[in-house]
Specification:
alpha+beta, Periplasmic binding protein-like II, 9-stranded mixed beta sheet, cell membrane, transport, sugar transport
Length: 506
Amino acid sequence: MQRSNSRLGWLAFGALAFLIGLYLVFLIQRAGHSLLALGALGVLGVTTWVFTSERAYAWRYLYPGVAAVLVFVLFPALYTVGIGFTNYSSTNLLSYERATAYFLDQKYAGSGEPLNLSLYPADKRFIVHVENEAGQGWQTAPLALDDAGARTVALQPAARPPAGDKAPMKDVIAHQAALKTLALILPGSKDEYRLSGLSKVAAMAPLFARNADGSLTNRQDGSVLKPDFNTGFYTSAGGERIAPGFKVGIGLGNFERLFTSHEFQGPLIKIFVWTVLFAFLTVVFTFVVGFVLASLLNWEGLRFRGVYRILLFLPYAVPGFISILIFRGLFNENFGEINLVLNGLFGIKPSWFSDPLLAKTMLLLVNTWLGYPYTMLLCMGMIKAIPADLYEVSAINGGGMWTNLTRITLPLIMKPMMPLLIASFAFNFNNFVLISLLTGGLPDFTDSMVPAGATDILVSYTYRIAFQDSGQNFGLAAAISTVIFALVAVLSVVNLKLTRVNASAR
């Protein structure tokens, strides 16, 4: 009996989750994202089949992980790649249908004369009364002015204003938002009267009419706008682009622009070289510092080794963004402690943030400080795992410290360390947090027309193009992200192959 109740409880929970999923699909569809709604419906259907079918029982353990990879890894990656083949930007945000709807929703003042508007209370509702200068009036039935959305209301002739006192101006002002949503229609007229002032309405007619070929005719001046699917804009007869633009596919346009345009080619090559150099030098410096410290801490004759280990591990225990912000203050050119010390000792105050070479040096110093504890811990463990017999044999054969280092320690730890060093290289290849918090990519290149700086790496350069440039070119940023993804994927493949080689060698 208890088992049956438990099964019924799970069935009820599953049915509730399925209904909630259907409702979410409905909301996505109503928002106008048909493809996304279709994909969500497919995921919901597969989920229901996996957890209800006996044939898919084994998949119940694998499905959550597989679904998470598809939804949170594969879908964003494919979506980003897809954006890279479009002109998606701050000037081309809308779809073609929504951009067309924007033009068709525009109104202009029609030929009718403006009418005076008044409100008359009627049992917590209001009668909207309008009249012309001659005193001819029209009014609505009692309405609830509660911002219920756009409404079209027919007016009825009124020989005299409604009974009772007219609402004061403060009430009219208080209901401005709701009054703006009303479209008032006079008897025998097709024009919509809309609010044009605090207490006036005027006839409004659609500004554009859509033609059979997709062009739009301006009813006010007769001009014609034609959609240009190459640029993603409606254009006038003179070729002027009329905002807002719409998103269209441009094929390899972003990638061609990225690799062939002088506007991007110059800074991109510099930034790519610096990105590789930054990641490589960071790995080298952190490994050297970490290995040296690990070797010292493994020296049996060193006193207070435990204290030294704790102190040297502290940079890894403090959250990285806090350390970066502290270093930003320490390197301040006017008030930072580092420049105060250098000025007191040598009479110099380096321009850490304005000189490109010094800014890059500062980044490498800070990143080495943040990264060496991790390498130190790895090297300590690997050195501990080396059999002591090897060093004893080396001592018997007259081997010294250099021989032990180059013939025993380094060769034995480099094989297991290599995949980890490659992973560290891939991480620093996309180390956005350090660049963003410490330098922001500055100082900027003086010969670049796009936002690019001497300390920018590819990922921060992408961010600046996507979110800080005046054009906010998301399509171009997605193309750069695709290139970065391909480079990191290659590094991952190399990492996996090295891992397999090491595993087979053991």
